[in-house]
Design brief:
Helices cover 77% and strands 0% of the residues. It has 313 residues and is an all-alpha fold. It folds into two domains: 2-88, no CATH class; 96-264, Orthogonal Bundle (MetI-like fold). The longest helix has 35 residues, at 174-208. The radius of gyration is 24 Å and the shape is globular. 30% of the residues are buried.
Length: 313
């Protein structure tokens, strides 16, 4: 197992190098001069030249890409043109809102998705199954911002159980912290749970038709034991894959949610960077998202061995 992990980590190097090249080419993929785009129409020639020099666009292409990768190897994701701060220092204070929101939302998605998926497979072709599939279809198709606004209208304006917008740090108390994150997390969780419901139901139906499940029931095992100890464990690998990929996409998926609920996380940082055309920040976020994706994929592969002891690397 240790050797496999080392080989996988080494295999990540060319992947991240390719992502770095693509992120660098983002500057040169624009149809016009990136410095002119960032400076704006009202900028003076001195401001344009300053931005061009700060981004290194006045140097040859080979020198630019060499300096870019030299920065990446030092852990430097660049410097924001508008704030003058490093991209890492801009991301650091945005992590405390984003990480709990992503984990909370994924937790709700797993609880809702697994519960409805197992129930739908257990009561296949019943009204429970049809209701779970209707929920899955609605959750998969509805816009996440529309769901967020409706949850605000219902639980914040009508019931007044949660705040409308904003973020409360954990240092101000656990209960206010959870109350502020519940509606955004529920918005993410309801949308993400839709695909978990479908995948869980599909995998469970396939396993429940196996001979050893019928044997377990014939031996007199309780239905709960058959469902959770035998069927769900055997059907876990496809579900783990979906959950793992969703955890990776949560980094980018919270962009809309943070904008709707006014949470100052990484999503808001990306939106601000795109609005201002702050290319160094956008490049830095691309690198971070790529690192999260490849690490989560590694964790998914390792989780397979826990769910299915027959898998060996």
């Amino acid at each position: 197992m240790t050797g496999y992990v080392i080989r996988r980590l080494l295999a990540l190097v060319p992947v991240l190098a390719l992502v770095g090249v693509l992120a660098f080419l983002l500057l040169h993929a624009t149809p016009s001069d990136p410095a002119a785009i960032m400076a704006g129409d009202l900028a003076s020639k001195e401001q344009y030249l300053r931005i061009r020099g700060a981004m290194g666009l006045d140097k040859p292409f080979v020198v630019q890409i060499g300096l870019y990768f030299k920065q990446l190897l030092r852990g430097d994701l660049g410097t924001s043109i508008f704030s003058g701060k490093s991209v890492v220092s801009l991301m650091a204070p945005r992590l405390p809102p984003t990480i709990p929101l992503a984990l909370y939302g994924e937790f709700l998605a797993i609880v809702i998705g697994l519960s409805l998926g197992v129930l739908a497979a257990w009561r296949a072709r019943s009204w429970i199954d049809r209701a779970a599939m209707a929920f899955s279809t609605m959750g998969y198709s509805m816009p996440i911002f529309w769901l967020g606004f409706n949850l605000i209208w219902l639980f914040s304006l009508k019931v007044r159980a949660f705040p409308v917008i904003g973020y409360v740090p954990l240092s101000e108390g656990f209960l206010p912290f959870i109350r502020a994150l519940t509606l955004p997390a529920l918005t993410c969780g309801l949308v993400l749970s839709a695909i978990i419901v479908r995948m869980t139901r599909s995998s469970m139906l396939e396993v429940l038709s196996e001979d050893y499940i019928r044997t377990a029931r014939a031996k007199g095992l309780r239905e709960r034991t058959v469902i959770f100890s035998h069927a769900l464990k055997a059907a876990a690998n496809p579900i783990i894959t979906i959950i793992g990929l969703q955890m990776a996409t949560m980094v980018t998926g919270v962009i809309v949610v943070e904008t709707v609920f006014g949470i100052p996380g990484l999503g808001r940082l990306v939106v601000d960077a795109i609005t201002r055309r702050d290319f160094p920040v956008i490049q830095g976020m691309l690198i971070v998202v790529a690192v999260v994706y490849v690490l989560v994929n590694l964790l998914i592969d390792l989780a397979y061995t826990v769910a299915d002891p027959r898998i060996r690397y």
